[in-house]
Structures are given as C-alpha cells and as structure tokens.
C-alpha cells in the first residue's frame, strides 16, 4: 500500500512540475523548462530579433519570447510571429532573465502554441 501511495504522490509532483504557468508567474521558475501562457500585447520586429511581449507592451511586459533573426524562419516566419499579437499564446522553453524580465528563446515553431481565449 505504501508503494501505491508513493506512486500517486510522484504523479502529483510530476504533473505539477509540467503545468502551464502564467506570464506573471514566470519569474518564479528561472532556468527551468516551462510552458508560459498569456495574452500577447505587442510583437516587435527589429533587425536583430522578434520580441513577443506578454501582458503589456515594452517596457512593461511581464514576460517575453525572443526569436533571434537567424531563427525567424524556423519559428514560422515574420508574418506568423506578427500574427500572434492579440492572441492567447503559450511558449515552451528554458526560462532566462534579462534586465529583470523573464524570457524564453524561441528557435523552433513547435515551441509556440496559440490557444483560444477563455
């Protein structure tokens, strides 16, 4: 019976570890691989990168996804990335911190999922 109890506890722990988090919660999970979800309020295209800002436009975003120029095509292309504006989006990857704002580097379109708004 104890083995079953430990197994059930393990399932609960594992499911909690892989649960989606909100953009505002991202700072609590630095260096972990997570799926971060929220509303995209701004997509900015520069010569160096595409920035996907969540919850507010720069400089007030709570979290952002960054696609470096070399990875734009692999991430779906500029038009597909711009189309994320105004949508509920999830990004999966390793959380990093730059200038006190959590972010995930996107190098593959499979890291991005558009969800229906709730």
From TrEMBL:
Keyword Signal attributed: yes
Keywords carried by this UniProt record: Signal
Signal sequence extent: 1-19
Protein name: DNA-binding protein
Protein source organism: Wohlfahrtiimonas chitiniclastica
């Amino acid at each position: 019976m104890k083995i079953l109890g430990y197994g059930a506890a393990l399932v609960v722990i594992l499911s909690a570890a892989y649960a989606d988090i909100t953009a505002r919660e991202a700072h609590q999970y630095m260096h972990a691989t997570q799926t971060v979800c929220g509303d995209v309020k701004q997509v900015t295209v520069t010569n160096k990168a595409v920035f996907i800002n969540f919850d507010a436009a720069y400089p007030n975003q709570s979290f952002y996804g960054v696609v470096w120029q070399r990875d734009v095509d692999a991430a779906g292309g500029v038009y597909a990335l711009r189309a994320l504006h105004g949508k509920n989006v999830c990004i999966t990857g390793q959380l990093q911190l730059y200038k006190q704002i959590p972010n995930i580097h996107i190098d593959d379109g499979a890291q991005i999922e558009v969800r229906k708004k709730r």
